[in-house]
Amino acid sequence: MTAVTADAYEAAFDAAVAADERIEPRDWMPDAYRATLVRQMAQHAHSEIIGMQPEANWITRAPSLRRKAILMAKVQDEAGHGLYLYSAAETLGTSRDELLDKLHTGRQKYSSIFNYPTLTWADVGAIGWLVDGAAITNQVPLCRCSYGPYARAMVRVCKEESFHQRQGYELLLALSRGTPEQHAMAQDAVDRWWWPSLMMFGPPDDASAHSAQSMAWKIKRHSNDELRQRFVDICVPQAESLGLTLPDPDLRWNEERGHHDFGAIDWTEFHEVLKGNGPCNEQRITQRRRAHEEGAWVREAAAAYAEKHRTAQHTEPGEATA
Ligand code: BYC
C-alpha cells in the first residue's frame, strides 16, 4: 500500500468513527484498534465461560426444582454469550482455538470477579444481583461500540443479563424476607461480593492504561470510574428495597455531586487477583483446561459430521455416498 493510500484509509476510518458509523470486518482498521478489540472481546468471552463455574457449583444443590431450572438456564446463557463473543472476535481474523489456547496458557485474562468462591446458596443471588448488574452497567454502552459485530452481540447479551440480574434480586429478596438465618446468609453474600463487584469495572481512570485510546475509538463510551459510580448509585436504593446493607461505612449521598460517595477500593487485592493469587484462580483455570480436554471428542465428532455433510453436498445425484 502506498503512503497516500494508507493515509486515505486511515482518514476514512477516523471519519467513520467521528460520524458514529460502525466499523465492519471488511473495513480497513488500524492494527492497534484490531488488537485492542481482540484483547477486550477475548477477555470478555473468557469471562463468560469461566463465569459458568462458580454458579454451576450450585446446580446440584439448588433448593427447589424451580430454582434449579432457572440456574441451569442462566449457566447455559453464559455459554451462549461466550459463543457470540468468540464468533465476533473471529471476525477480526483470530481463531477460537487460538483464543482458548491463550486463556489456557495464561496469556489472556478473564474477569477478576470469577476468582472468588461461591460459599452458600445466597451467593447465586448475589452474583445475579451484583455481578450481572455490574456486567449490564458496563455492557449497555458497549451496544454502541464502534465495532459492529461486538455491538450487535452485546444487544442480545444485555437482554439476557437483565433477566439474570432480576433472578438474582428476586432470590435475595426471598432470602432477605425469610428466616433470620436466611436473611443473615443473604447479608453475608452481599458483604463478600460487593467490593469485588466494584473492581469489575477495572482500575481507576488515572491508572487505566487503555481507556483514553479506547474511548477515542468509541470502543468504550464511558470511563471505568463513571460506570462504577453509575453502578453504586443504582445499587443503593435496590439494597434498601432488599432490606440489606452494603458493607461500606463511607457510603453516603453527596448532594453537591448528585452521586453517592463511597469508600476506598482495595486495589492491592485487585492486582493480586490479576496476578493469579485470588482465592480460586488455580481452581478455575484447572477446571477450564480439564473441560476443554474432556470435550475434545465432541469437537472432533462435530467436525467429522460437518465434513461428512460437506462431501455429501458435493456428490452428484445418483453417485454413491459413504
Ligand atoms: N478483571 O486499561 P484498563 C460477565 C485489566 S463478566 C481482569 O482499564 P480496559 C458475566 C485490563 O484487561 C464481565 N482484568 O482496561 C457476568 C488491562 O489488562 P491488559 C466481563 C481487568 O480494557 C455474569 C488492565 O487491567 N465483561 O460478563 O480499557 C456471569 C488495565 O485496565 C479487569 C467484560 O469483559 C477485571 N475486572 O477496561 C458470567 C466487559 N479490569 O489487557 C459472565 C468488556 C481491567 O492490558 N470489557 N482489567 O493486560 C471492558 O469493558 C473493559 O475491558 C474493562 C477494562 C472495563 C473490563
TrEMBL record:
Cited Pfam families: PaaA_PaaC (PF05138)
GO CC terms, sorted: cytosol
Annotated protein name in UniProt: 1,2-phenylacetyl-CoA epoxidase subunit A
EC identifiers of the protein: 1.14.13.149
Species name: Streptomyces genisteinicus
GO MF entry, a single one: phenylacetyl-CoA 1,2-epoxidase activity
Swiss-Prot/TrEMBL keywords: Oxidoreductase
PANTHER family cross-referenced by the UniProt entry: 1,2-PHENYLACETYL-COA EPOXIDASE, SUBUNIT A (PTHR30458:SF2), PHENYLACETIC ACID DEGRADATION PROTEIN PAA (PTHR30458)
Lineage of the organism: Bacteria, Bacillati, Actinomycetota, Actinomycetes, Kitasatosporales
Annotated GO biological process: phenylacetate catabolic process
